[in-house]
Amino acid sequence: MADPSECPAASGGLLPPELHAWMLMRAVTGAVEQELRSVVKERLDVSHDEFLVLSLLAAHPGQALRMTRIAELLGRPKTRLTYQIACLQHVGLVNRRSVCGDKRGIEVALTEKARRLLEEASEALAETVKEALGRSMGPAQCKAVSALMPDLAAEKAPE
């Protein structure tokens, strides 16, 4: 992984500051995802994209989400999501069911097995993210993210 001090400065050259900040943020999240992939595979034995589905469902405990909503939230094509959900269902991590009153609608929910696996793996996954962010975010990235969301940065600033 690149040393954050070697990353481009907060100035984006031809890019407006917001677009440059977005690109720096994407680079950081890409670096984190790259490290997370191996931990996800080792701990949960699923792909990174399948992990994103599980994480989204875990953020809504006790609820089922419609497939269309999952695809929308993850920015995934519905056909690709259908395959991922089938794989997760095959290994017993999600359940699918028809939406009551809508014969075309499908809802997806975590199984107890998935809840247990996520609980067991969550500490290692969180630590991986924390360490990867620490390695990949330097002052330029922090400044760029603050520039992208100045209102949020002001709200979060210590008083």
TrEMBL record:
Name of the protein described by the UniProt record: MarR family transcriptional regulator
PANTHER family, sorted: HTH-TYPE TRANSCRIPTIONAL REPRESSOR YETL, TRANSCRIPTIONAL REGULATOR, MARR FAMILY
Organism: Streptomyces pseudovenezuelae
UniProt xrefs under SUPFAM superfamilies: Winged helix' DNA-binding domain (SSF46785)
InterPro entries: HTH_MarR-typ, MarR/SlyA-like, WH-like_DNA-bd_sf, WH_DNA-bd_sf
Residues of the HTH marR-type domain: 18-154
